[in-house]
Design brief:
mainly beta; 124 residues; 4-stranded antiparallel β-sheet; Immunoglobulin-like
Length: 124
């Protein structure tokens, strides 16, 4: 049977760098060996699990702006895990929509009572 470890939320901070080009997420996970840290990133979230002594750090963050998970870089030093990941351009996956010329809409004249007035010379 696997050993039970109490789950603990790490101290966490997430912010945009000064140029607003990338997201920086920092987790304080002292005592977690580097080789046991499991961090996963999707465009809209970050997931962390890191066993340390008799506890297990766990975190799941929903991001307010999409990122490029394939370009994430993580460093771990003195109990601080720092992840840097560039923001995704919101128009990156945009698809240009072709516009067709349509027929001009037919004008209708409506009388004050709501009845349609047909122009002379047109058959109903």
């Amino acid at each position: 049977m696997p050993e039970y470890r109490m789950k603990v939320a790490p101290e966490t901070v997430a912010y945009a760098d000064g140029a607003n080009d990338k997201l920086i997420v920092e987790f304080a996970i002292p005592g977690a060996p580097t080789e046991t840290i499991d961090v996963k990133i999707l465009e809209d979230s970050v997931y962390l699990i890191a066993p340390a002594r008799d506890i297990e750090y766990v975190s799941a963050l929903a991001l307010g702006w999409p990122v490029k998970p394939g370009k994430a870089v993580a460093t771990y030093e003195h109990g601080l895990l720092r992840i840097e990941v560039p923001f995704k351009d919101p128009m990156e996956d945009a698809v240009k929509v072709a516009i067709k010329a349509g027929a001009a809409p037919k004008a209708k004249t409506i009388a004050a009572g709501g009845a349609e007035i047909k122009p002379k010379g047109l058959k109903a």
